[in-house]
């Protein structure tokens, strides 16, 4: 059947992924969004060109799925305070204007499509709910910082 | 003549009663595979989806509550309470539903297959009763005091649910032959959509 060999490949691919690609992404939220972006919406399969070349497409797919689930599990266990820090760090890493980021995240809720396959709906609902509150806290903070000069109102995306 | 008729009626009545008792010999073993699969599914959902320690800790965490309440606009605290209440009510509803599924399985089918002792069965029945009661109490507490005033009931509920899961695991252990287990571990589960 060759499953043990396949397993070794997946573990090696996951290790490689962590060491090369994910090493700079210290926040689970950042990793979650990145790994979700490697998944094909139509097939649900993950694809990473470099990893697939070094190992195999199947091993790369499973390694990406494992790391994706790992990042999600970390988010489930993250406190609200940690989540606010993560959102703030992610916002800084995107180099998008904070107001635009808040508007997009509140309106589009992009994290909803970043959930790995097979996750229980309660865990994902908890993460969505925590992100919603963390976003509200971050927005209040940003508004507080903006107050002295600007009075730009953040309205949701239509 | 009247007394003869009376005794005949009593006799027929007893025969009908015996026939009914003979028919009611419990759940049939044949064709009950679906119940086992459903029970296994309920057990998995409880163990992996609803009762993991980190999930419960996060759901009823007091630090999150304090942090959200300290956040500057008051409506953030309200939003947090509203959201946690919604999720924790969803959690209780799901736990209750899966516990009822397991209970149905134990009531109808488990004793035909698992060699549970009488003491274990009594303990299991008490745990099921306690769980359903705790779920009800928790729902009331969540409505009245919110998720942060229900810690003690959550502890009781998760402990009883853990015991029920362990007993159910034993009853359903024959569904996990070693060969299947090793295949499941090394197959492409874990999130890969295959």
Write a brief caption for the model.
Chain A is mainly alpha-helical and 158 residues long.
What keyword list fits this structure?
heterodimer; A: 158 residues; mainly alpha; B: 194 residues; 79% helix; elongated; disordered C terminus
Q: What distance lies between the first and last C-alpha atoms of chain A, to the nearest angstrom?
A: 52 Å
Q: State the order of secondary-structure elements of chain B, H for helix, E for strand.
A: HHHHHHHH
Query: What structural class do helix, strand and pairing data of chain B support?
Result: mainly alpha
Structural class of chain A: mainly alpha
Cα radius of gyration of chain A in angstroms: 18 Å
The fraction of residues assigned to DSSP E strands of chain B is under 5%
**How many domains make up the 3D coordinates of chain B?**
1
The major pleated sheet of chain B works out as: none
Number of strands of chain A: 0
Explain what the structure shows:
The complex is a heterodimer of chains A (158) and B (194). Chain A has one domain (3-146). Chain A has helices spanning 3-20, 28-37, 49-54, 57-77, 80-94, 98-108, 121-146. Chain A is elongated. In chain A, helix 5 (80-94) packs across helix 7 (121-146). Chain A is 68% helix and 0% strand. Chain A is mainly α and 158 residues long. With 194 residues, chain B is mainly α. Chain B is built from 8 helices and no strands. Chain B has helices at 2-23, 33-50, 53-59, 62-70, 74-113, 118-145, 151-171, 178-186. Chain B is elongated. The interface between A and B is large, with 40 and 37 residues.
